[in-house]
C-alpha cells in the first residue's frame, strides 16, 4: 500500500510502498477515503525536518541538553550514532482521516466491517491507503456526511474542545484570533452555539471566508481593538479563543486588550506565551490552554485500550467531541466545503507539503485515495536488496519480529556489522518501521504479520524484538516450527508463560534459545569476571541503577504488556549478578520507597542471596537526575574491590594495586559479543552462551522480587 512518510533528517516527504498493517486487539483496519493535512502541526514538523542539524538544535534546546547529558554518560560516538539514527527514521504524518472498516481485530466492540468511520490520532489516522485505528479513536459517520467532510473531524474536535473551555453560551460575544483552518472551524462552532463572533486575521481573504462560515464581523489586527469596542458597545468580549499559529506573543497581548472584565482567554493554537501582566491582572482574566481534542488525549488507557471515562463524570471526551462535530455537519449547522482549498491524490502526496510550506495560499488540503478491493500486501519485497534464495542447511537465514527503537538503533546495526547471516525478512505490526529497516539493513522483504516469517521455509533463525507480552508466544511459535530464537529480554512476564517455555525446552533436538542479556558479554564484564573468579569466598555486589521516571501510561509499566520495570528491565541486572556468581539466586527480599502517585514500583532495593552465600543488592531507582550516570556496580571480596561505572570505566584494586580500563568515546554493553556468541552456538562451534538454568532462574528471580515487594516478605526462588 502507499503511505506518505517524512524523513526527519533530510526533510524529504516521500510516498512509499509499505506492508499493509495488521489490526491488533481492539483495533480495526480502515481503508482510507480522505485524510486532512494539518496546516499547523504538520507544517511545523515539516519545517523542522527541513532545517539542518544546527537549525534543529537552535529550535529544540531542550533536546540539545539531553544529547549533551547522554554524551557525558555514554560517550560522544554512542550519542552521535543514536541521534543520527533517530533522525533517519521515517515519520508517519497525519492524524485526521475518514474511511471504511475492512477488517476488525479481536476484542473490538461496537464496529463491524463496512462501517464508515472518522478516525483520529497521531500514528494512527495517518496519510496511508490503509490504517489501523483503536476503538476510542473511531466514530461512526452519520449518513448525510461524506468522507471529505468527515476527514475534518479531528481538527473539528480540537476546535470543539477549545470552544467548550470558553464556557460561553447563547448570545455571548466571542473573539477568535487567527482565522486559519482551526480558527474558521471554531468560528462555525461558535455560531452554531448561538454566539456573536468577531474574527481577527492578518490575511484579508481568510477574513472574508470567516464571514461565509458564520462570523458576524472579521477585521485585521490594526482594526481589532476598535472593532471589539464597537462590537461589544465598549464592554469587551466575553471570551477570546486564540487559534493563531505564530511564535509571536502578540495574540496574547491583543486578547488582553479586547477582553471584558473577568473574561476568559483560551489558547487553542501554538503561540508565544509571555503573558502581559497589566491587562490580565487589572481585568482578572482567566487564561486556559486547550489540550488537543479533549479528555482522553495522551492517555494510553483511553486511546489504546478503550478504557472510556463515565459520561456522568466526563461528559466530553475526545471521542464525544468528534461525534458532536460530525453531528453539526449532519444537521447542516456547519459547512466545511468552503474550507477545502486543495485536493491531492496520495500518489502525489509530497506535493501537499510543498503547498503548506510554500508561498501560495492554502487552507484545507485533502489527500484523496482511490477505492479498491482489499489487497494482500502484508509482505512487500525490498527492491533495494536482492531476494534471498538459500537453503536452510547452507546458511543462517534471519527473520526479525519487531522494528522499534532497540531493533533500529542497537540490534540491527550489530547484525549488519558482524555479518555471517542472510537477512531474509523483518516484520512489524504497522509495516512502516519494517519497510524502513528492510531497506536500511538489506532484508529481502518487509511484512506486517509475524506468521509471514514463521511460515517462511528459508528462515531458520528468529530474533524477537517485540513488546514484552508477545515474547513467550512468539518464542514458542518459532521453536515449534524449528527455528532458533534470539529474544530480547524478558523471557516471559508471568509464571504460566515461563512454565510453557520450560516444558518446550525439555524436548529432544529442539532449536536453541537465548535472551539478550548482553551486559555479561561486554569487554569490561569479561575483565571483571576474570577478576572475581580468583575468589575463595562469597561476593558482595551492589548494582545501582539511575533509571529515571517513566510517564504514567508508558507501555513498560503496564503489567499486561511490559510486565513492569522489575520484570521488564530489572532482569538485566539480576542476570549480571548471576553471571558474576555463576549461579542463579535462591532468595530475595525487596523493599521499596512510597510511590506517591509518581512512581510505579521502580524505587526499590532487591537483595538476592545466592547458593554460595554471595549477596547481590540491586538498587533500581527512578527518583534521580537523568544527567547522572545510569549504572554503577561495586564488588567486594577477599580484600579486593572492583567498580564498574556506566560501562565506560572499570577499576580493580587488589593488594594495594589499582588497575583501570577505560572506554572513552563509547559504551560497549556487549551487544555485539552476545550476538556473536549465539551465532557460534547455532553453528555448533560453542556451547549456548547462557545456560538454560540461568535464563529460567533469572526470570524466576524477577518474578520473586516483585512478589516480595508486594508481600513485604522474603521469597525463596
Write a structural description.
With 717 residues, the chain is an alpha/beta fold. The chain has 23 helices and 32 strands. Helix 8 links the parallel strand 10 and strand 11. It starts with a strand and ends with a strand. The model has no long low-confidence stretch (mean pLDDT 91).
Walk across the major sheet and give the strand order.
31-30-29-28-24-27-26-25-32
Number of strands: 32
Report the biggest beta sheet as strand number plus sense, adding barrel if it closes. 9 strands, mixed
Number of helices: 23
Can you tell me the residue ranges where pLDDT is under 50 for at least 5 consecutive residues?
none
Portion in beta strands:
15-25%
What is the helix fraction of residues, given as a range?
Answer: 25-40%
Mean pLDDT: 91
How do you describe this structure in short?
The protein has 717 residues and is an alpha/beta fold.
Question: What characteristics describe this protein?
Answer:
717 residues; alpha/beta; 9-stranded mixed β-sheet; 7-stranded mixed β-sheet; 23 helices; 33% helix; globular
In terms of topology, how is this protein built?
Layout lengths: L1 E6 L5 E5 L9 E11 L3 H10 L2 H7 L1 H14 L1 H13 L1 E3 L3 E9 L11 E5 L9 E5 L3 E3 L6 H4 L2 H14 L6 E5 L3 H12 L3 E5 L3 H9 L4 E3 L4 H8 L5 E6 L7 H9 E9 L9 H6 L3 E4 L10 H4 L14 H13 L9 E6 L4 H8 L6 E5 L10 E3 L14 E6 L3 H14 L2 E7 L4 H10 L3 E3 L2 H5 L6 E4 L6 H10 L3 E4 L7 H11 L7 E3 L7 H10 L7 E7 L18 H17 L5 E6 L11 E6 L5 E7 L9 E7 L2 E6 L3 E6 L2 E6 L8 H12 L9 H20 L3 E2 L1
Parallel strand pairs: 9-10, 9-12, 10-11, 12-13, 13-14, 15-16, 18-19, 18-21, 19-20, 21-22, 22-23, 24-27
Antiparallel strand pairs: 1-2, 1-4, 3-5, 3-7, 3-16, 5-6, 6-8, 17-20, 24-28, 25-26, 25-32, 26-27, 28-29, 29-30, 30-31
Amino acid at each position: 500500500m502507499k503511505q506518505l512518510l517524512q524523513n526527519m533528517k533530510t526533510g524529504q516527504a516521500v510516498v512509499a510502498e509499505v506492508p499493509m498493517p495488521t489490526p491488533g486487539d481492539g483495533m480495526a483496519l480502515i481503508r482510507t477515503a480522505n485524510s486532512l493535512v494539518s496546516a499547523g502541526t504538520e507544517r511545523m514538523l515539516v519545517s523542522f525536518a527541513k532545517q539542518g542539524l544546527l537549525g534543529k538544535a537552535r529550535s529544540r534546546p531542550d533536546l540539545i541538553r539531553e544529547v549533551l547529558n547522554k554524551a557525558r554518560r555514554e560517550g560522544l560516538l554512542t550519542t552521535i550514532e543514536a541521534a543520527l539514527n533517530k533522525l533517519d527514521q521515517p515519520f508517519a504524518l497525519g492524524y485526521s482521516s475518514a474511511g471504511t472498516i475492512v477488517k476488525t481485530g479481536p476484542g473490538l466492540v461496537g464496529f463491524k466491517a463496512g462501517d464508515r468511520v472518522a478516525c483520529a490520532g497521531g500514528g494512527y489516522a495517518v496519510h496511508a491507503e490503509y490504517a489501523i485505528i483503536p476503538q476510542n479513536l473511531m466514530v461512526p459517520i452519520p449518513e448525510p456526511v461524506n468522507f471529505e467532510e468527515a476527514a475534518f473531524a479531528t481538527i473539528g474536535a480540537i476546535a470543539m474542545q477549545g470552544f467548550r473551555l470558553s464556557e460561553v453560551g447563547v448570545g455571548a460575544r466571542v473573539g477568535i484570533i487567527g482565522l486559519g483552518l482551526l480558527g474558521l472551524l471554531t468560528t462555525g462552532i461558535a455560531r452554531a452555539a448561538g454566539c456573536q463572533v468577531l474574527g481577527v486575521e492578518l490575511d484579508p481573504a481568510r477574513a472574508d471566508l470567516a464571514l461565509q462560515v458564520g462570523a458576524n464581523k472579521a477585521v485585521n489586527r490594526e482594526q481589532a481593538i476598535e472593532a471589539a469596542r464597537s462590537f461589544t458597545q465598549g464592554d469587551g468580549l466575553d471570551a477570546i479563543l486564540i487559534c493563531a499559529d505564530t511564535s509571536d506573543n502578540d495574540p496574547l497581548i491583543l486578547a488582553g486588550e479586547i477582553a471584558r472584565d473577568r473574561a476568559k482567554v483560551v489558547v487553542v493554537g501554538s503561540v508565544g506565551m509571555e503573558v502581559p501582566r497589566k491587562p490580565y491582572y487589572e481585568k482578572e482574566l482567566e487564561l486556559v490552554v486547550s489540550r488537543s481534542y479533549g479528555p482522553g488525549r495522551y492517555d494510553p488507557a483511553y486511546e489504546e485500550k478503550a478504557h472510556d471515562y463515565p459520561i456522568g463524570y466526563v461528559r466530553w471526551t475526545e471521542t464525544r467531541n468528534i461525534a458532536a462535530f460530525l453531528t453539526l455537519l449532519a444537521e447542516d449547522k456547519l459547512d466545511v466545503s468552503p474550507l477545502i482549498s486543495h485536493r491531492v491524490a496520495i500518489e502525489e502526496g509530497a506535493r501537499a507539503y510543498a503547498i503548506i510550506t510554500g508561498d501560495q495560499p492554502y487552507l484545507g488540503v485533502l489527500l484523496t485515495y482511490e477505492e479498491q478491493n482489499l489487497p494482500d500486501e502484508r509482505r512487500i519485497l525490498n527492491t533495494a536488496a536482492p531476494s534471498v534464495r538459500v537453503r536452510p542447511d547452507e546458511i543462517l537465514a534471519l527473520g526479525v519480529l519487531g522494528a522499534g527503537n532497540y531493533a533500529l538503533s542497537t540490534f540491527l546495526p550489530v547484525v549488519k556489522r558482524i555479518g555471517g547471516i542472510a537477512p531474509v525478512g523483518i516484520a512489524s505490526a504497522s509495516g512502516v518501521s519494517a519497510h524502513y529497516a528492510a531497506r536500511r539493513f538489506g532484508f529481502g522483504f518487509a511484512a506486517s504479520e509475524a506468521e509471514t516469517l514463521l511460515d517462511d521455509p528459508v528462515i531458520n533463525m528468529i530474533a524477537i524484538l517485540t513488546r514484552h507480552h508477545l515474547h513467550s508466544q512468539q518464542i514458542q511459535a518459532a521453536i515449534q516450527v524449528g527455528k532458533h530464537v534470539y529474544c530480547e529480554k524478558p523471557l516471559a512476564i508471568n509464571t504460566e508463560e515461563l512454565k510453557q517455555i520450560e516444558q518446550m525446552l525439555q524436548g529432544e533436538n529442539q532449536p536453541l534459545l537465548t535472551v539478550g542479556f548482553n551486559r555479561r558479554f561486554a569487554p569490561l564484564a569479561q575483565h571483571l569476571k576474570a577478576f572475581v573468579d580468583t575468589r575463595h569466598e562469597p561476593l558482595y555486589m551492589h548494582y545501582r541503577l539511575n533509571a529515571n521516571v517513566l510517564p504514567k501510561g508508558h507501555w513498560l509499566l503496564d503489567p499486561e504488556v511490559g510486565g513492569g520495570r522489575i520484570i521488564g528491565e530489572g532482569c538485566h541486572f539480576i542476570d549480571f549478578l548471576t553471571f558474576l556468581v555463576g549461579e542463579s539466586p535462591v532468595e530475595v527480599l525487596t523493599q521499596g520507597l512510597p510511590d506517591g502517585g509518581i512512581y510505579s514500583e521502580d524505587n526499590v532495593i532487591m537483595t538476592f542471596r545466592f547458593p554460595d552465600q554471595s549477596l547481590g543488592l540491586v538498587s533500581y531507582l527512578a527518583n534521580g537526575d537523568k544527567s547522572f550516570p545510569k549504572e554503577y556496580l561495586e564488588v567486594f571480596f577477599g580484600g579486593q574491590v572492583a567498580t564498574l561505572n556506566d560501562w565506560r570505566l572499570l577499576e580493580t584494586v587488589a593488594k594495594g594495586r589499582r588497575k583501570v580500563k577505560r572506554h572513552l568515546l563509547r559504551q560497549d554493553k556487549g551487544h555485539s559479543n552476545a550476538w556473536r556468541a549465539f551465532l557460534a552456538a547455532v553453528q555448533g562451534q560453542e556451547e549456548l552462551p547462557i545456560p538454560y538454568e540461568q535464563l529460567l532462574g533469572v526470570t524466576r528471580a524477577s518474578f520473586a522480587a516483585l512478589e516480595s515487594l508486594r508481600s513485604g516478605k522474603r521469597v525463596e526462588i
